[in-house]
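Hi everyone,

Forwarding the result from last night's run.
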Amino acid sequence: MLAVAAAITVAGCDGSTQAAGPQPTTRSSGASPTSAAASAPSTAPVDERAAVEAAYRRFWAVSWDVDKQPTSRWRAVLATVSVDPILTRLYAGTKAHQQAGIRLYGQVRARPTVRRVTGSRATVGDCQDASQAGQADARTGKPETVGVARSPVEATMLRGADGRWRVSDVRYMGGSC
């Protein structure tokens, strides 16, 4: 399912096969993203929450299209929007997709809610729409998978020493939102 950027196997693909290899996300077996703790309001200023949301949206735009860049630039491009552990998973997944002859198509539409900002850490919930995105054969461009319209996602973001927010982890919660 990986609607996570470049090395992605679209979340909740509808019966289509997915590529083997590292997947950039992990599936949570814990609490729902709508649990009381996850949805507790943040006390961060509005501008800080806006910065977190903007960085989250940029993550999806940049990471989804990274395979359109020269291979030698992938890690550097991903590092502008992500940090480990997701950075390494995305990079490895993108390489695995390339070797398997897979490219991503379309765009993931993020519908984020900044749930919490505490110091240099933030939590974002998303009811992501990947219904117009998926994996395609790199040679023919023919779509092989398609994502789902309402996939619950939770992301952890970290603010770096440079003051920029980057995604450090993405979890698909399962079910629908």
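Residues 1-41 have pLDDT under 50 and may be disordered.

Cheers,
N.
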